[in-house]
């Protein structure tokens, strides 16, 4: 699947966990404003770093990402071409962890 856009849907952490199992089939995943917290982002990041083929886009904008999830996302370098974290309240320290990735804040 080239693109899955679930923006504005109440995906939540359980939905993110379910989506994580199918990440290898999705090139672009947009989860803008989907009520996902660090727990759900952690599930997605854990799966993304294990992908055989990289994703073109993972958009988690306007979700509550959290410190631990940012650390997990930083391990996805080379697996996610573009990461969007707009309006996610990412600190300067967290941005530093993601400095080697193409991230849009």
UniProtKB/TrEMBL annotation:
It comes from the Eukaryota. Pfam families: LRR_6. This is NACHT, LRR and PYD domains-containing protein 3-like. The lineage of its organism: Eukaryota, Metazoa, Chordata, Tunicata, Ascidiacea.
